[in-house]
Design a protein that fits this description.
Elements (H helix, E strand, L loop, with lengths): L3 E5 L3 H12 L3 E5 L3 H11 L4 E3 L3 H5 L2 E6 L5 H14 L5 E5 L5 H5 L8 E6 L13 E6 L5 H13 L3 E6 L9
Parallel strand pairs: 1-2, 1-4, 2-3, 4-5, 5-6, 7-8
Antiparallel strand pairs: 6-7
Length: about 180
């Protein structure tokens, strides 16, 4: 995996994934709109190689892959996908940890449906997230490109995780 990894959301889960990605030798940028989360990230990640950005635009400017950690609710996910779609370069892949959302629906709100995936922790105890899991499921929509899937799979495997791919269960039956 080459290129910058951007993590949006410097809460515990975002910090955990950013640190794990930096430890895997990846170029990582972390951003959060909440000053308290940014301060916690500065303290916890000092010397880890994770760069902190002060704005979302700055964070995604060079991103190859963006992983968001906004709340797993429709309004938050739609808002972040719309913002990222507008701010990130067209080549940027959007990856969202979600236990509830359809990546097919979220991707349809962007101009890059071919570069959108969701990810879920596998066999996780309640509350375990993708930043600390040993395995993840990558959910693709009918428009998701094979190149996107390959890049995302490489990212998770680079973090030492087993990764499998599944079609989004919410994808229209006729498109499969």
């Amino acid at each position: 995996m080459t290129g910058q990894i951007t993590v949006i959301g410097a809460g515990e889960r975002g910090r955990r994934l950013a640190k794990r990605a930096a430890e895997a030798g990846l170029n990582v940028v972390l951003e959060d709109v909440f000053p308290a989360n940014r301060r916690a990230a500065e303290a916890e990640l000092a010397g880890s190689g994770v760069e902190l950005a002060s704005t979302m635009e700055e964070a995604v400017r060079e991103a190859a892959l963006v992983v968001d950690f906004v709340p797993d609710e429709l309004e938050s996910k739609l808002e972040i996908f719309c913002l990222l779609d507008r701010m990130a370069p067209p080549r940027t892949i959007l990856c969202t940890p979600s236990e509830k959302m359809s990546i097919t629906d979220l991707a349809s709100c962007t101009y890059r449906a071919d570069r959108c995936v969701a990810v879920r922790a596998v066999g996780a105890a309640k509350g375990l997230d993708v930043g600390e899991a040993k395995s993840v499921r990558v959910l693709r929509g009918p428009a998701t490109s094979d190149a996107t899937v390959a890049t995302v799979m490489e990212f998770w495997r680079r973090l030492g995780m087993d990764a499998t791919v599944e079609m989004d269960a919410e994808a229209p039956k006729l498109v499969r």
